Amino acid sequence: MMRISIAYPFRKLINSTEANRKESILQYIGERSQLLSSRHPRIYLLTVYCIALLGYAYLLLFPTIFIVSSLAIFRSLSSYQTLAVEQLLIQVSVLAVSALVTYRIIRFRPALPESTVRKTNEPSAMLCQLMDDYVRHYRSIKIDRIVFSSDYEIDIIRAPRWPLPIWSRSTLVIGLPIIQCFSVTRFQCALARRIGQFARRRLWQGNLLYQLRDIWPLYIESSDHSSFGYQPVRWFISVYAPIYRIISASVARTDELAADTCAMELFNDEDVLDLITVQMACLRYLEDECLPAMQKMQASHSLAADGIAAGTVSLICKLIHSDRMVHWVSKAGSAETRLDDNLPGLAVRAKNIGHTQARMRITEPESAASVYLSSVNNRNESQ
């Protein structure tokens, strides 16, 4: 499911000439990559793999320079070669800079996602069991922890254990607006869809490329990002990550369609269609009507994460059980997909699972939170 952050703007209003130029460049790159993906999908996929490898190559660049420089200086000293002062200074400078940057890269440890709301609730034993059942069914990656956020999302965030994004810790991030507003079946379907999307058997079918879209920005958000010697990494990733994200947008949309298909292994097509319809309609409602006001309040520090979560829960729950939902389903169905969107349009997703139009069910008012959330206060009292 697409991550919808209430606490941060979807699109910053950019006024500076330089920022507008960057936006134009990204838009041009996005248009070219989208055209390539439609005309030559294999060449496009190979291109995205090569660009993904570029990120790995850059992280290995400074350790490689350090090793080569060390060997060059050692060889010169061991063979008693006489070096010019300028040449010696250049070699020592290259060695020192590469050593410092390599040290910062080795020390890199991204922060794990944390709950952005007060810990008044925590996952129940039934939620942990449900998650484990889906992980076993899909042979998915191991999920190390569960946290809750104020966002309209269910996501799995993979934070690298090592400087290279190879081995990772996985965190399941569940937005309170999802678990408190969705019915039990709808929530189960959303959770199965997300875990199925990250199945091990699908890693090299494009999902790894999808995951890197969220992994590269972690190198900018790291606590070491302002440390002396980390600037070359921060500068490169700050340029590279947005370019990679927009180039890989078509891969992400294809992966989201595959995730819808994954959900149909455990749920019928009507259940998946219901989830897709509600997800996209609520997303359109939040983007068009709710987010601008909430972002202004959040920017003025008059609305904390808990207030954001409570407000979003109230708005979505009212919308789902009101007649206005028909309007937002129609609006979501006619909305165009933007270049940087990772979710395809509602009509495309419905067609992907064998339906010609979106449709939602009238579900029971009981939310998934009544089953899959346990109160911390109640647990403490029972102990």
Secondary-structure blueprint:
Elements: H1 17-39, H2 41-78, H3 85-107, E1 121-123, H4 125-138, E2 145-149, E3 154-160, E4 168-175, H5 176-181, H6 184-197, H7 207-215, H8 218-221, H9 231-247, H10 249-263, H11 269-299, H12 305-320, H13 325-334, H14 346-352, H15 369-372, E5 373-375, H16 376-382
Parallel strand pairs: 2-4
Antiparallel strand pairs: 1-5, 3-4
Helix pairs in contact: 1-2, 1-9, 2-3, 2-9, 4-6, 6-10, 6-11, 11-12, 11-13
Describe the structure in your own words:
By secondary structure, the chain is mainly alpha-helical. The protein has 2 domains: 17-107, no CATH class; 121-222 and 248-382, no CATH class. It has 16 helices and 5 strands. The protein has helices spanning 17-39, 41-78, 85-107, 125-138, 176-181, 184-197, 207-215, 218-221, 231-247, 249-263, 269-299, 305-320, 325-334, 346-352, 369-372, 376-382, and strands spanning 121-123, 145-149, 154-160, 168-175, 373-375. The chain has a 3-stranded mixed β-sheet. A hairpin with a 7-residue loop joins strand 3 (154-160) and strand 4 (168-175). Helix 1 (17-39) packs across helix 2 (41-78) and helix 2 (41-78) runs antiparallel to helix 9 (231-247).
Strand content: 5-15%
**What would you report as the Rg, rounded to the nearest angstrom?**
24 Å
Globally, the shape reads elongated
Query: What is the terminal-to-terminal distance?
Result: 36 Å
Number of strands: 5
Uncertain spans, ≥5 residues at pLDDT below 50? 1-16, 376-383
